[in-house]
Amino acid sequence: MIKVGDFQISRVEEVVLDEPVELLAGFNEEIRERHRGWLEPDFYNGERNVFFSVIQTWILRDGKRTIIIDTSGGDDRDRPLSPRFHMQKRHLDRALLAEGVEPEKVDMVFLTHLHVDHVGWNTRKEGDRFVPMFPNARYVVSSTELAARDPERGAKERPPASWNTYLDTVKPILEAGLVDQVEGTENLGPGLDIIQIPGHAPGMIGLRVRSGGEEAVFIADVMHQPLQVYYPEWNSRYCENQELARETRAKVLKHAADEGALLLPAHYGAPHAGYIRSIGKNYRFEPVAWTR
Ligand SMILES: [Zn+2]
C-alpha cells in the first residue's frame, strides 16, 4: 500500500505481458547497456530482450469511498484485433475480492481512456450479454474519448472489429445510466482533481490526488516504461497523436519533478510507481517504497 495523506492506494494485477522492445523506437543496444542495471529484473528481461507491461487496476480509498482506476482487459472478450486480450480467463474479479473490493461497494470507476487494456472489467458476462461489473458506481469517462470510440461518431470509418471494445464495455454502462461524462478539468471531491493528459489517446485524463501536503497523480499511458523518464521524447507505438503525447509527457514530468508528486502510471513493472528527480536538464526515476 502507498499512503498519500488520508488516501490509501493499492492495486490488483491482471497479467504481466512481454512487450517487444519495438514499443519504444529509440531503444538500442547502447542504451540497453547503459540502463540495464536498474531495468532488470522488473522492467526488462535482457536474455529475451523484452520489456514488461503490467496490466492492472489501481484502487484508491479514503475510508469513505472506494474508487478504482481503469479496469484492465477483461475475461471472455472477443478481440480479433488484440490477441493478447482475446478470450482470456484472468479473473481480475477474484483478485479484487481478495483485495477487499466488493463490486457492489465500489463508488467510482475512473476510466483514463477507452483503449482495450483499460476498460475490460467495466462489465462482466452474464449469459450471452455483458452487464455492468460495478452496478452502484459512477463511471467517470472523458466525453472526447466517448466521441472518438463510438461507432456512430468518431469510429465510423474504422473496421467493425475495432468497435467490439466499445460495444461490450462502454455501451452497457451508458445504457444503464452509470456514466458521468467529463471534460477533464472537474473536481471529484476533496483532494481529487481530473487533469487533461491527451496524446496517447485523444481524451486521456489523469487523476490528481492531494492530501496532507502530499500529491500523487494517476497518469495512465503518458509513459509505458520508466525508460521514458530518461528519454521523454520517446513515444510508444500505441500513442495516437505523437506530437501531443510528447508535449503532455514533458509537462507531466516537469510537474512531478517540481512538486515532488508521486506518479502512478498504468503499465510500469514493480513497484509500479515512483518519483521524478531532476538531474540538470534530465530526469531520473526513483521507485516508490510500498508498505503492507
Ligand atoms: Zn494502456
What this model shows, in words?
This protein has 292 residues and is α/β, with parallel strands linked by helices. It has one domain (2-287): Metallo-beta-lactamase, Chain A. The protein is built from six helices and 16 strands. Strands 1, 2, 3, 4, 5, 6, 9 and 10 form an eight-stranded mixed beta sheet that branches. A four-stranded mixed beta sheet has the order 11-12-13-14, covered by helices on one side. Strand 12 and strand 13 (214-220) form a beta hairpin. The longest helix is centred in the C-terminal third of the chain and has 18 residues, at 242-259. It is globular, with a radius of gyration of 18 Å. 42% of the residues are buried. Bound molecules: zinc ion. Zinc ion is lined by residues 115, 117-118, 221, 266-267.
Task: Please write out the topology.
Layout (H helix, E strand, L loop, with lengths): L1 E3 L2 E14 L8 H11 L4 E2 L4 E12 L4 E4 L22 H7 L9 E3 L12 E4 L2 E4 L5 E5 H7 L14 H12 L3 E4 L9 E5 L8 E7 L2 E7 L6 H4 L11 H18 L2 E4 L8 E6 L2 E6 L5
Parallel strand pairs: 5-6, 6-9, 9-10, 13-14
Antiparallel strand pairs: 1-2, 2-4, 3-4, 4-5, 7-8, 11-12, 12-13, 15-16
The structure holds zinc ion.
The site of zinc ion has 6 residues, from loops.
Number of strands: 16
CATH topology: Metallo-beta-lactamase, Chain A
The total of helices stands at 6
Name every ligand kind in the structure: zinc ion
- What is the radius of gyration? 18 Å
Mean pLDDT: 96
Number of domains: 1
